[in-house]
Automatic annotation (TrEMBL):
Organism, as annotated: Catenulispora yoronensis
Regions crossing the membrane: none
Putative restriction endonuclease domain mapped to chain residues: 30-157
Cross-referenced PANTHER family: SLL1072 PROTEIN, SLR1083 PROTEIN
InterPro entries: Nuclease_put_TT1808, Restrct_endonuc-II-like, Uma2
Name this protein carries in UniProt: Putative restriction endonuclease domain-containing protein
Length: 198
């Protein structure tokens, strides 16, 4: 993409330097106009761009394991996504590690909107602790989205359930959690064995 010195749109994009220097927060329209490579984990949080470093292999294994588990238990009435944008409002487009919607709300060519998300999951990496523990749970709660956070301690995994209202609840080992009225058994120790080999 070529850009002009004054930030004018050229060939479908914007001059990133001009946007980064802007005193006003970015909007979702600005964010999507950037045409950021889908392979990069760039999110719009509070009108500012945030970039997460590439995750470690264990993170991907846990995400894949949990996404498959959700697909198997929830069945055809739901769709499970990994690492895609969700529009929360005009200044927030997080990219949950996993999220679930009802199949009836699925639109193959549209970015998912928060009101259609019934669960968001974040798998915490060292570079995402503040966002995953504080910023995103608050953002999801404000949008009416229940969420889970997976944390690592050595070779064990902890799942923190963050309801829309009420206190967070931490789980170890085997747990059965409610996703839109469906009971989903989650075996954190089995996921840890796949991720860490112990």
């Amino acid at each position: 993409m070529s850009v002009s010195d004054d930030g004018e749109e050229i060939e479908g994009g914007f001059d990133l330097n001009s946007i980064m220097d802007a005193s006003e927060p970015l909007t979702t329209k600005d964010f999507f106009a950037l045409g950021v490579d889908e392979k990069l984990k760039v999110e719009l949080i509070g009108g500012a761009l945030t970039v997460s470093p590439s995750s470690r292999p264990w993170h991907g294994i846990v995400a894949n394991h949990l996404a498959r588990r959700l697909e198997d238990v929830l069945g055809e009435d739901f769709v499970v996504f990994t690492d895609l944008d969700v529009i929360v409002d005009e200044e927030n487009v997080p990219r949950p590690d996993i999220f679930v919607i009802r199949r009836a709300t699925y639109a193959p060519d549209k970015v998912t909107e928060a009101q259609n998300v019934i669960l968001a999951v974040e798998i915490m990496s060292p570079g995402s602790q503040v966002n995953d523990r504080r910023v995103k749970p608050s953002l999801y709660r404000g949008a009416g989205i229940p969420s889970w956070r997976i944390e690592r301690s050595g070779h064990r995994l902890l799942l923190v359930e963050v309801p829309v209202r009420g206190d967070e609840v931490a789980h170890l080992g085997q747990v059965v959690l409610d996703v839109a009225g469906v009971k989903v058994p989650v075996d954190l120790d089995a996921a840890a064995v796949k991720a860490f080999g112990t």
